[in-house]
Structures are given as C-alpha cells and as structure tokens.
Amino acid sequence: MLKVWGRITSINVLKVVWTIRELGLPFERVDVGGAFGGLDTPGYGALNPNRRIPTLDDDGFILWESNAIVRYLAARYGAGSLWPEDPRERGLSDRWMEWQNVEFSPAMVPAFMQLIRTPPEKRNQAAIEQSVARAAQVAMVLEQSLAGQDHVGGSRFTMGDVVAGCAVDRWLGLPIEHPHVPNIRAWHERISARPSAQGLLKQPLQ
Ligand SMILES: N[C@@H](CCC(=O)N[C@@H](CS)C(=O)NCC(=O)O)C(=O)O
C-alpha cells in the first residue's frame, strides 16, 4: 500500500493525496512536519535527506519532491487519465506543474506565509503587497489560457489540474483583493466538485 509522510496542511502533501485519491488507490498518511515534528529524526532523514514533506513509499520505492511524486503516480497508475499518453497533450498538462513551481507559488507564497502563518503584529505589509500584485500578474497567464477550455491541458482533467489547482485553491482562499478571473473561478469550481477533491480543496487556510 502507498504511504505518504506529511501533514495535510502542506500544499505539497495535498497535491500528492489528491492525486492518489483521484487514482482510487488505497494509501496511508503519516502526520509529520509542522507542529507534528518528526523531520529531524535519523529515520526520516534516511527517507528524505532534505527533511521536507512529502515523502512517498510505494512498496519500498521511496520518492521525494511533490511534483516528481505526482508525475510518478500519474505515469504508473494513471496512464491515459492523469497522465496523457500523447506527448504533446502531456506537455500541455505538465507545463502547469512547472508554472506552479517556478512562477505562481514563488509569487504567492510570501503573501500566504504573511497572512496565514504570521501573527498580525509581525506582518510585513510591503512584502504582502508585492506578493499579492505579482501573484495577480502571474495568475492572468492561467486566466487567459483557460479561455475556451475546461482544464489546464485541454478538455480533460490531468495531473496539471491537480498541481496548479492546489496552488490556485490557496490563492483564492487568501483574504486579499483578487483580480477579475472568471475562467479561473469556473475551473476552480469544476475541479473542486470532483469526488476526489472533497475535504481537500476549499478548506479554511491554516
Ligand atoms: N520542493 C519540495 C518542497 C517541500 C517543502 O518545502 N515542504 C514543506 C511543507 S509545504 C516542508 O517540508 N516544511 C517543513 C515542515 O512542514 O515542517 C516539494 O515540492 O516536495
């Protein structure tokens, strides 16, 4: 059975859990990281030398880095669904995983950390404003790409929807003024309605 290490309040754990649920696979999740601790033990360090979450164990095969885990699971268990078999269709999905990792999350995370994980008296208003503005700018790339299509890679739900969807779900949940993004909001409703997303998306941020 699949085993995932990591608290569910981590976006990187969330995307892995959503992937596994979408694939309909049995799994066990172990709460480590954050207030749970457990990342500084020799045992965890042997599994994941970065001492980060998530870590996946698939029958003794250990993998870390959340987007690599999503790709692995999709390729192994979701060929033709989460993992498009046509290389072009797969590329159009996969690019949104890179976009999440190198464009959108770096823009948005400072605002998330300030507004959700920092007490009000310790917040840096300038950092929040800069992050909110940059995230809005980056989000418009997705907004335009979603015009006339139901999912990030095209007509079907694929791994790119999971990964970009987790980040966008957080962004939409932030107590900030968002730009006008009707295509993103419609897509977010669509993906949040999936049975596999229940209890994972649209949750209070913490
Ligand atoms: N690039 C890594 C980042 C992993 C990461 O930074 N995880 C955070 C949680 S989102 C973590 O381990 N934080 C320490 C903690 O939770 O104690 C991945 O995508 O898996």
From TrEMBL:
Residues 1-81 form the GST N-terminal domain. Pfam families: GST_C, GST_N. Residues 86-206 form the GST C-terminal domain. InterPro entries: Glutathione-S-Trfase_C-like, Glutathione-S-Trfase_C_sf, Glutathione_S-Trfase, Glutathione_S-Trfase_N, GST_C, Thioredoxin-like_sf. Belongs to the GST superfamily. This is Glutathione S-transferase. It comes from Pigmentiphaga soli. The lineage of its organism: Bacteria, Pseudomonadati, Pseudomonadota, Betaproteobacteria, Burkholderiales.
